């Protein structure tokens, strides 16, 4: 068996650092990824960087460009719409089950997560905001007591982090996200399953509409190649 030369946790840290940069928009779509430069900036050897880049390519975050190596892949509107359609259903189910099975724990532990989310927004740090958002949703998954919801959503977390980054960096009122989270939590904590599900679906649908409307507006503003 071949010896492992790069600690898995170091590869994960490099992967997380690169994903944070992409989600924050500091590495925008089309940006060329230079392995040697990244290794120098992160203060690590090339090997963990190379492994992290392979993983990001497999996850669709990076893609090959002829003559340019790897570049940051663009998020496609159709992919985003499909992602949010699925999320609306699963998040709604998770919140309904959480209200039925974890109301007491939600009331006890949930407010601290909301407060942490508001502090993350106040910090202006995209990485903190995205991490707080993910922690909130993971908390709801755990309250649902359905062991399949968390792992199902985890397969899409990489794309979700990019989408969350789009929302928190470009939304003019990111605190509204945590107002919505607080409302969802209150419905869960009071055991109002139907309301919790409706709020969760609305939360996800609004995020999708925000992103898709903005992207379509940008596409419409771009000059056509056939324009005079």
Can you put this structure into words, describing what you see?
The chain is mainly α. The chain has ten helices and three strands, in the order αβααββααααααα. It has a three-stranded antiparallel sheet with strand order 1-3-2. β2 (62-65) and β3 (69-72) form a beta hairpin. It starts with 7 loop residues before the first helix and ends in a 7-residue tail after the last helix.
The N- and C-terminal alpha carbons lie at a distance of 63 Å
Number of strands: 3
SSE-based structural type: mainly alpha
CATH topology of the largest domain: Four Helix Bundle (Hemerythrin (Met), subunit A)
Which architecture of the largest domain per CATH?
Up-down Bundle
**Helix count, per DSSP?**
10
Enumerate the spans where pLDDT stays under 50 for 5 or more consecutive residues.
Answer: 223-228
Shape call: globular
- Helix fraction, binned, reads over 70%
What is the ordering of alpha helices and beta strands?
Answer: HEHHEEHHHHHHH
Beta-strand content bin: under 5%
At the first level of CATH, what is the class of the largest domain? Mainly Alpha
Mean pLDDT comes to 87
Largest sheet: 3 strands, antiparallel
Tell me the number of structural domains: 2
Organism: Ideonella lacteola
Pfam families: FCD, GntR
Protein name: GntR family transcriptional regulator
Domain HTH gntR-type: 8-75
């Amino acid at each position: 068996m071949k010896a492992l030369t790069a600690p898995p946790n170091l590869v994960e840290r490099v992967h997380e650092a690169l994903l944070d940069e992409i989600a924050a928009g500091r590495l925008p779509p089309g940006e060329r990824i230079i392995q040697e430069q990244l290794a120098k900036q992160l203060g690590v050897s090339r090997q963990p960087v190379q492994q992290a880049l392979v993983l990001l390519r497999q996850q669709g975050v990076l893609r090959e460009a002829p003559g340019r190596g790897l570049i940051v892949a663009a998020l496609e509107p159709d992919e985003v719409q499909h992602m949010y359609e699925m999320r609306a259903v699963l998040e709604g189910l998770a919140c309904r089950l959480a209200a039925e099975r974890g109301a007491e724990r939600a009331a006890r532990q949930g407010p601290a997560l909301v407060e942490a989310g508001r502090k993350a927004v106040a910090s202006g740090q995209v990485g903190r905001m995205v991490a707080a958002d993910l922690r909130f949703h993971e908390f709801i998954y755990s309250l649902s007591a359905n062991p399949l919801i968390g792992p199902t959503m985890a397969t899409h977390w990489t794309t979700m982090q990019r989408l969350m980054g789009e929302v928190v960096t470009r939304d003019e009122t990111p605190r509204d996200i945590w107002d919505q989270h607080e409302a969802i939590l209150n419905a869960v904590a009071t055991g109002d399953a139907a309301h919790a599900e409706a709020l969760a679906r609305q939360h996800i649908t609004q995020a999708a509409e925000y992103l898709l409307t903005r992207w379509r507006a940008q596409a419409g503003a771009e000059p056509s190649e056939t324009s005079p």
